[in-house]
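#lab-general

N.A. 3:47 PM
ok so I finally got the sequence cleaned up, no stray characters, all 319 residues accounted for. can someone with queue access submit it? mine expired

B.Y. 3:52 PM
send it over

N.A. 3:53 PM
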Amino acid sequence: MASSEAGGVVIVGSGLIGRSWAMLFASGGFKVKLYDIEQQQITNALENIRKEMKSLEQSDSLKGSLTAEQQLSLISGCANLTQAVEGAVHIQECVPENLELKRKIFAQLDRIVDDRVILSSSSSCLLPSKLFVGLAHVKQCIVAHPVNPPYYVPLVELIPHPETAPATMDLTHALMRKIGQTPVRVLKEIDGFVLNRLQYAVISEAWRLVEEGIVSPSDLDLVMSDGLGMRYAFIGPLETMHLNAEGVMSYCDRYSEGMRRVLKTFGPIPEFSRATVEKVNQDMCLKVPDDPEHLSARRQWRDDCLMRLAKLKNQMQPQ
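B.Y. 4:20 PM
back already:
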C-alpha cells in the first residue's frame, strides 16, 4: 500500500486541469479527493486518470517513485464539498474561468475550512483581489496558475492577494516543488500575470508580422519552433542576453540602441480582424485540419514531445 503525505489535497473540479492536478499530487504521495457536483463526472474523471496513469507507466513517463496502482489508490472522488475538505491542507480550485462561479466556490469554502488550509485557484487571468473579495480566510488564499498541460509543463505561477500571508506563499511554493513542479513567485498581482503577458506580447507581434505581409503564418511558427523556442526551452530571454555578450551590461551597451529602434516600429494592438483570422486559419488547417480527430491527434503528439523534452531537461542539469 502506498504511504501518503500528512494531510490531504482537495481538487475542486474534475476537468482536464483538475485531473492533471490530481495526478501530480498523487505522484508526490498525497491523498487526493476529487470533488465535483455530479457523481458521474467524478466517475468519468477517475476512469480517465486510471487510463492516463497506466499509459504513462507503460511509456516510462509516470512521475514520482510510486507505481501507477499506488498513486491511483491515493485518489478518490467525493460529491460532498464539506466531507471532501475534512483534513485537507491544500484545496486547488479548477472550475471554468468564470469570475462569479469561482467566487461562489470560494465563498462556500470560506464557510467550511479552518485557519490552516490553503485555498488556491488555478485561474489563468483573474486577479486575486477580485477572486477572493470579502473572504474571512483571505490570508490563506493564493492563485497557483499551471501551464497546460500541467503534467508535462512544470511551471506554476504563484500570485498573492494583497492580504495573502507570506507563509501561504512559502507553503504553496514548497508544496509545488514537492510534487515536481517549478513554482515562480509573482510578487504582486498584474493583469495576465507573467506567462500570459509574455505570451500575448509574442502573439501580438506575430499577428502584426503576418497581417502586414512580412512573413507567412507557417514560416512565422518556424521562427519560434526552430529558432527562439529551442533556445528558450533551456534558458530565458534575460540569460540569453547575458550569454550573447559578456554579461547583461555588455549586451545592453552593444544592443540597446538597436533594440529601441526596432521596438519603436512595433504597431498598435492588433484587432485580430476577420481577414487575418481567415488567412492564419487557412494556413494552420493545411498543417492540422480543424476537425476533432486531427486536433486531438496533434495535441497528443504535442504532449508526447513535451514529455520527451521534460525528460531531456531533467538529464541536462545546469553546470
